[in-house]
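Entry 12.
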Amino acid sequence: MSSASSASLVSPSQRERPLKEEQKLFENAWRNKTRNFDNKDSQKKSLVVPGHQHQHSQHDQHGTQKSFSELPEVLGVPGVDIGSPGVALSELDSEDMSSDASDSPRNKKLVGKAVQKFFWAEMKHRLVKKTRHLALATRTLVQAHGSPKAGSLSNKFDKRVAGKLVTFEKQLSQQTQNTSLLKEAAKRELLNISAPLRAELMQKLREIMKKNMTSDPDMWERVKVLQRSMIDSLWEDVEKEIELNVELAWLQPLDPNQQPEQGSKWSCCESCYRFVRRKVLRHYLPFDRSIFGKLKDPIYVALTLTMLIPNAGFRVSVLSIILTFILFPRPPDEFQIINFILLCKGTQFLTGGLVSMGQGATIYFGCFNWHETDMTACIAQRGPGNVSSLIGELADYWGSIVLVWIAFLNLPFAQEHRQQKRLKLQSQKIEKISQVSESESKSQRLKIDRGGRMSSLLNYDVACFAFSLLVLLVLTGGHLMMSKEDHQVTAYRHFQEDIFWCKVLYSLLSMPFALFTIQPLQQVLTHAAPTGFNDFGECVPFRMAEKAIGSVGPVGSVGSVSMAEP
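Predicted 3D structure (tokens):
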């Protein structure tokens, strides 16, 4: 018991080390910011000193004019006399003072108040948590002084003290949760208030990058304009990704294994549906496994191999089931819908494009080598278009775009479950946060601009599908005209081959979607926080499983997923 209590007393400090490091980094950045601001003021004051202004005026003016005359004309503006430093410096100082006085001091004051509020919330949370650990250790010591039989207490006074400590520990546990919610609220407020300072810093970085990329004097003006516009278009994605990562790193993660609340009793069919949904999504889209961890799961491998079968619509059937499980029960998760679109198009490029093209080329090569005399009859009987039925080919061809657009049309009604669940947990204890959650939940019911740049890729996908349909119509019309003269191959067999190769063409054009299935590119494209499904079928934030060194155990023991203590 004493070793367990000592372990419990040591572990919170280890968990609080990243928080202390973040606070130190924030304080150092804050001091550097204020020190730079104070240095500006001191430099401005040092330019004009009342006591020594007339003594060194001639010497300083002569030296300053000499130094300014040696400067190249690139530093000056045409039409402005740079030899009079007093005017130039005064203009620069007035501009700096006006910009700093309008934005920086006000933002610094607000951020300072938010930091102070977060500091006191953090101190209160630590005090309550340490008191709780002290009560737990005291109760453990009282039980250790009892009878040796299972640590039972024989003295009435000891029993009374132990009972009081249990009650006190429960109250402290509740207070720990409350102070944790207050600390998270202070963190969120600090993030919101310091957003203008971060935006100002990112704006300066963007201007520096544009200046460095266009610093070549021999560069064409059109190339400079193109590079500036490219930086401006990509910088928005960079800013959103940085803000998302800052929020994920700063705010406390939710417990991914928290059991959901069941409102009403489910029927038999609904219970069976939820059971199958929970099992499939937990194995195929887990919240705590990367691709390397999922490859160890036989169910995931079986589903993936099924989607690699190029015939009879196996891929579309499996993807239809997964899309149904993601959309129902509603509302769906934003990241999961975007991930499904990229997954559908990525497997289409792999299965319907590369694998099907290899299958057709192999069949043609076999007919050319082993059926030289009747090559046309071999292709007509064993061609790639005759391997599966026409219904299966059409299902694979048309289903690739129908499933994607069903998912995309549900994207405006999706929610970011990571933010919604955090606000829901905080609103249970704090009235202000509940009001914020209600307003944010209303605004998140219908949001058209979800998915980042996904709409541009889907417009490209529609253009590719229309192009493949145009090729199919041209080939079908040509074969109908040629079939009147040559009846060796029927028009139906020509149509089957045309369907097959137009499907291959459309699938190969889906290669850009396959590139964005890579996790870093996917986050920059969509700006959605990664999520997954837990053992209860709930969509939770993605969190890699962490195991203790040298220990392997089941879930709940040492080596399982480590949860942050509130």
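Annotation: The chain has a mean pLDDT of 72. The CA atoms of residues 185 and 433 lie 8 Å apart.
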